[in-house]
Amino acid sequence: MIKCELPKGDDPLQQIEECLRIIEEMDKSYEKREETVLDLSEVKWILPCSALLLSGKIFEIKNKGIEINYIEPKKEDVKKYLKDIGFPLGTERDGETFSPIKHFGNEKDINEEISKLLSSMENKIPENFGSSIPYILGELADNIEQHSKFSNASLMAQYYPQKNYVDIGVLDDGLTIPFVFEINKIGFSKDSEAINKALSGITTKGEELSRGYGLKSSKEIVEKALNGEMYIISRKGALIINPDSEIKHYDFKNTYLKGTLVYMRLKSPDKHLNIYPYLE
């Protein structure tokens, strides 16, 4: 049995790091071909990024033929929240303010799955976001499709009307940003530095520099236009973009993500947003 005890608080990185430890235990259980029981009974608070990470791993292992069961949280509101968003295997049923967890394999077109997510959220978020969210998600989809060679990917989004922001998570289990840099012989000292280079416009696509600037423009929109936060986790590296501080680099010491997670918290603009001044 794998015990889940997530830190209670609004710091995504703390919960993400604990989820990576839990996922490592799940992988070890899978390697032994053991039935896995995930004990969430003591979880008092779970962020969308954590639900997405754990759900993505459950989906991946279940697809490999190993049974995974889980014990629901004792806390009723957490239990209800997880059920609403489709934990653990995802659902097609949309909620009033969210698009639930959806998993898909590489036989699906990721751009089509992103389009479904955008259609789901169209009437749930304020019009002031303009084309910012479609642009950011389109860039993420293109990069996953062209670089990651993923087997499984996961999406979810949730709008918080009272707090006036939207959370979006995109997860894939493909080649990480640091590994893609390594095979293209682009130097870096730490995995977080590789992520920073990718967001600074450095591309692995030879002369097609404009594609590298798509992620850079996405960062500008998140940070400056939407006053938002962006967490990019890839292998051992984490990059945290926050409008109130310098970009933060973090590298996990004892764990890592077999893939890439992008988690964003975007604040609704006061007026309709024109993204073009933020594009390279």
3D structure, described in words:
The protein is of the alpha+beta class and 280 residues long. The protein has two domains: 1-90, Transcription Regulator spoIIAA; 91-280, Histidine kinase-like ATPase, C-terminal domain (Heat Shock Protein 90), CATH 3.30.565.10. It has helices at residues 12-31, 48-63, 76-84, 110-121, 132-148, 177-183, 191-199, 209-225; strands at 2-3, 36-39, 68-71, 98-105, 152-160, 165-172, 229-235, 237-241, 248-251, 257-267. The strands form two sheets. A seven-stranded antiparallel β-sheet has the order 4-5-6-10-7-8-9, sandwiched between helices. Helix 1 (12-31) links the parallel strand 1 (2-3) and strand 2 (36-39). It is globular, with a radius of gyration of 18 Å. It starts with a strand and ends in a 13-residue tail after the last strand. Residues 207-213 have low confidence and may be disordered.
